[in-house]
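Tokens as discussed.
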């Protein structure tokens, strides 16, 4: 009954807007030329090849203005050539004051405070999916996959670039091999292309093909690259063998491990690429931002493993893929403790599953159909349990061999719209659980590109031993996407059995929610502001079964950037009483939190200056109780010179008198008033010798205490109310917590050849969690340093091998 109106609405939208086009002025075009002798990539444009073709200029402003021609003093011109191996691009950036060119030495994908030159290439000219290549004035490379306005800098391919500078400006030479691109298999290529120039010291950015910021998305405003014909690209096969050595010392025990493995990229054809990782090694990934988590939901961590961040734009459609599920905690990890017999103890219980191998195949046909397939296999894990009386050991499987799969079909049309089918599934041994989720998505603009219609319908199926649960969820929204005044209305729904948590992540289900909002923004400088936006928003949250109101809220927000690049903004809102069905950890039970007002603000100074800072603060005040919540963040940064940069961050969070879950006693939910305080200090310092070698220091210390007030315990009533009781706190049921974690990484990174690097990493970490919530910061820190310290030293070397280089070498 719920699915039928969704499908009818989708059919109407798809039929009515079949002929939509991205509205823009006449597209510029550049006709390139084939060459026999490629230019040398050294940043100096004196090769004969560049004299064979004319340059194009006439860049126009995109920020802060809208379409103003670039001044002659900063004229920017481009040239493009190609052969059977690659395309070659030259950029000429004039500058009347070359001493003002900002260039900071950074490592790959980190632009920081450098001026830069951007190339966006859309080989299918579909208005959305494109590859971005960036070169800074200091010579640093960055590359990303673009999907609409979203940049995925986890995407890394091998290409060449070099820069030079003289008294007239700076210059860039770029070689992009076809191995770094995917394009349709046809004789005459017609690619979308766009060029940007960022002039940092002028606080301005210019583009080659005009972009109307008030209508649609920038990706819909590429120009055209013509003239690429009859290319016969070489085999796209790249190998990334690696070796790593790890020395680990903890609590008097020293281990030395040696690992070796291989990543592989293979171009199945011009459009599709196979990525594989065999015997993967994730020993040098960044540490997780672990915090004290007393809530009903698991903590979400960002993905630090390169294989799961690179080229995953197709697999992220519909938000059904939380990559940390692969290699996560075994599904039966907590069951091992629950299944202990008398006199038994756990002597080994792995907290992570081992990834055996993973692959992904992705690409797009010349008709705009994107196809993605992902597969990963994780190894079985067992807990070792010992009888303390007899000494007999037994093993309990906590996670069987598991297979993770994703299949995506994404059809782009009209250069601004798409429909998508997604399926994810996880298959385990039948004694555990299997999960399967299917989704239909659409993202459609009307003919004039002034309205966007977006929707999702998702079906989940979870197979447990003797039980099969099917769930459904949907989203619908309509948004005005043109002009200074914009608005949006939306609806989201999920029934009580919707569950995507085998490969995705979803904290809540059983909801029937409505959202709305509107805004006014400027697209050209006005008065003292380069950007300015004000908006209003609101929501009404309901349960699906039973159909009851959960919360109604509304508020306003603002954001502004001055001409001197000082940014500030904030929000203010009001929430009605809120029925929280998740904090009690009991089915069909809620606690009723009082109505509250919230406010926030932030300021951010000009990053171009040597010293800059960010300040952010928010506060929640519950109107009929003593519960309140304060959050504060201060982050100064200092750029000592073009090589050395440092960022410090301080966070403080204080919750006072929050009614919080304590335990379940004889089917009664016990609550207590909790005071929680958190302090976090972090530091990131980088010294780059050049854009190939650098030293990085990353440090984080997080401390948090949670203390429940004496004689402030209650029983949760049927109407979400609390009735005070006498609750005896013992050593076993003490809900207080003192959480302390320290992480320090010091690394040296050297990119010794294109696509090849060596990383030497020293890691130092300490962790402690206890019930000593009365300790102050200094006492808790002393307590932390009394714990065993883990010291880890590792060296990892990755070497890039291009099959064509090997073939040519063997021929020679």
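Sequence:
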């Amino acid at each position: 009954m719920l699915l039928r109106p969704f499908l009818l609405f989708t059919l109407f939208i798809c039929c009515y807007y079949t002929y939509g086009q991205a509205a823009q002025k006449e597209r510029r075009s550049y006709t390139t030329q084939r060459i026999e002798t490629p230019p040398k990539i050294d940043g100096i444009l004196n090769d004969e090849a560049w004299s064979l073709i004319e340059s194009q200029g006439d860049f126009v402003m995109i920020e802060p203005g809208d379409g103003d021609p670039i001044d002659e003093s900063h004229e920017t011109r481009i040239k493009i050539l190609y052969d059977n191996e690659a395309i070659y691009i030259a950029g000429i950036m004039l500058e009347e004051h070359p001493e003002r060119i900002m260039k900071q030495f950074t490592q790959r994908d980190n632009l920081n405070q450098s001026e830069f030159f951007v190339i966006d290439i859309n080989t299918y000219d579909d208005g959305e999916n494109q590859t971005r290549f960036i070169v800074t004035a200091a010579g640093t490379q960055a590359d990303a996959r673009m999907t609409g306005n979203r940049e995925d800098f986890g995407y890394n391919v091998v290409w060449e670039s070099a820069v030079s500078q003289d008294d007239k400006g700076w210059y860039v030479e770029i070689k992009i091999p076809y191995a770094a691109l995917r394009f349709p298999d046809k004789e005459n290529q017609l690619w979308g292309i766009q060029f940007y120039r960022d002039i940092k010291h002028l606080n301005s950015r210019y583009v080659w093909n005009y972009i109307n910021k008030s209508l649609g998305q920038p990706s819909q405003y590429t120009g055209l690259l013509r003239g690429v014909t009859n290319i016969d690209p070489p085999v796209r096969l790249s190998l990334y063998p690696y070796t790593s050595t790890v020395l680990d010392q903890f609590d008097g025990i020293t281990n030395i491990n040696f690992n070796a493995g291989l990543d592989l990229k293979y171009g199945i054809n011009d459009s599709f690429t196979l990525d594989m990782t065999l015997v993967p090694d994730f020993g040098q990934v960044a540490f997780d931002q672990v915090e004290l988590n007393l809530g009903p939901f698991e903590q979400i961590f960002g993905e630090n493993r390169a294989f799961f961040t690179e080229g995953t734009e197709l697999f992220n459609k519909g938000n059904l893929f939380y990559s940390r599920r692969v290699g996560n905690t075994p599904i039966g990890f907590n069951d091992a403790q629950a299944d202990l017999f008398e006199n038994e103890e756990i002597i080994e219980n792995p907290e992570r599953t081992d990834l055996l191998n993973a692959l992904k195949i992705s690409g797009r046909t010349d008709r705009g159909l994107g196809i993605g397939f992902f597969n990963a296999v994780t190894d079985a894990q067992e807990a070792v349990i010992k009888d303390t009386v007899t000494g007999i050991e037994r093993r309990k499987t906590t996670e069987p061999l598991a297979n993770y799969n994703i299949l995506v079909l994404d059809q782009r049309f009209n250069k601004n719209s798409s429909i998508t089918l997604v399926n994810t599934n996880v298959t385990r041994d039948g004694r555990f659980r299997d999960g399967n989720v299917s989704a239909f998505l659409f993202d459609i603009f009307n003919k004039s590109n002034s309205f966007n219609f977006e929707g999702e319908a998702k079906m989940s199926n979870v197979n447990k031993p003797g039980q099969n649960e099917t769930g459904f969820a949907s989203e619908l929204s309509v948004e005005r996407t043109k002009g200074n005044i914009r608005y949006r209305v939306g609806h989201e729904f999920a029934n009580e059995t919707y569950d995507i948590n085998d490969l995705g992540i979803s904290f809540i289900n059983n909801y029937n929610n409505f959202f709305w909002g509107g805004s006014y923004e400027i697209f050209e400088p006005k008065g003292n502001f380069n950007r300015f936006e004000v908006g209003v928003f609101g929501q009404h949250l309901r349960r699906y079964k039973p159909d009851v109101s959960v919360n109604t809220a509304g508020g306003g927000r603002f954001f502004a950037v001055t001409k001197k690049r000082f940014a500030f903004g904030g929000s203010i809102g009001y929430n009605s009483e809120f029925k929280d069905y998740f904090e009690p950890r009991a089915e069909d039970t809620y606690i009723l939190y009082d109505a509250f007002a919230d406010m926030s603000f932030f300021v951010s100074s000009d990053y171009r200056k040597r010293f800059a800072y960010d300040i952010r603060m928010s506060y929640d005040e519950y109107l009929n109780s003593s519960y309140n919540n304060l959050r504060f963040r201060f982050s100064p940064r200092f750029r000592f010179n073009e090589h050395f940069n440092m960022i410090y961050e301080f966070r403080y969070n204080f919750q006072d008198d929050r009614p919080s879950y304590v335990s379940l006693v004889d089917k009664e939910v016990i609550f207590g008033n909790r005071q929680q305080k958190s302090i976090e200090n972090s530091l990131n310092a980088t010294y780059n010798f050049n854009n190939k070698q650098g030293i990085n220091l990353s440090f984080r210390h997080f401390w948090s205490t949670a203390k429940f007030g004496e004689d402030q315990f209650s029983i949760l009533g049927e109407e979400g109310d609390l009735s005070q009781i006498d609750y005896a706190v013992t050593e076993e049921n003490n809900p207080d917590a003192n959480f302390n974690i320290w992480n320090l990484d010091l690394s040296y990174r050297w990119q010794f050849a294109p696509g090849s690097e060596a990383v030497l990493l020293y890691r130092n970490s300490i962790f402690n969690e206890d019930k000593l919530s009365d300790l102050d910061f200094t006492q808790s820190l002393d307590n932390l340093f009394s714990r065993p310290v883990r010291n880890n030293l590792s060296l990892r070397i990755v070497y890039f091998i291009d099959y064509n280089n090997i073939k040519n070498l063997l021929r020679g």
